[in-house]
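Re: beginner question about structure tokens

> Can someone show what the tokenized structure looks like for a real chain? I only ever see the sequence side.

Sure, here's an example I had lying around. Input first:
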Amino acid sequence: MTPEVFDFLRELRANNNREWFQDNKKRYDALRADFISDVGQLINRIATFDPEIAGLDARSCVYRIYRDLRFSPDKTPYKTYFSAYMTGFGGRSSAYGGYYIHLEPDAPQLAGGVWCPTSPMLKQLRRDICDNMDELTAIIDAPAFRHTFGTFTGEQLTRMPQGFPADTPRGELLRFKSYVVMSVKPESYFTAPDWLDRTTEDFRLLQPLNRFLNYTIGEFFGKEP
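And the corresponding structure tokens:
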């Protein structure tokens, strides 16, 4: 990946207005096309260990750079990052667990899992996690996984959710409102010649977690596991 993507986004962050963006639209279009191509390559690579993702259209996975300003006090018009979400059950708008790439100056990252499930879906996820805690912890406590992604991150309840005993083993995992893990990388990770290989191997670590979570989500939507 060319370092130009981070240069462009850093400049955009300092000049987040329509006039600057229009003056640099050709740069943006070229970088976006390259990013879509990269996402397509990632999809093909992920499909070697997660066949559900085969045939996914890269364009359906890449997020728009234009911000939704309707309910935001921040009226800057553009996001200052490129991002894409890949899952075998749809593109960027899917509720299923998948693979996320986020290119932002100073804080690019890879992530995976399920982000902000609906309240009924979250309730079912917590129940299935409680019933299959050993299976989940075997995934997230594996040394390679923990070294790369740590553990779940994001907003948590201050106490156990209703219906779960306070002494539930590993009960802290039931307090999360999302089941997402992430790995913040240096920019050099993505500009190195082997970044696609390294990203593929990091995403490979996420496949068991996504499979575990998507079993529940499939049942939630009434699909055969």
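Each token stands for a local structural state, so reading them left to right follows the chain. The CA atoms of residues 109 and 184 lie 4 Å apart.
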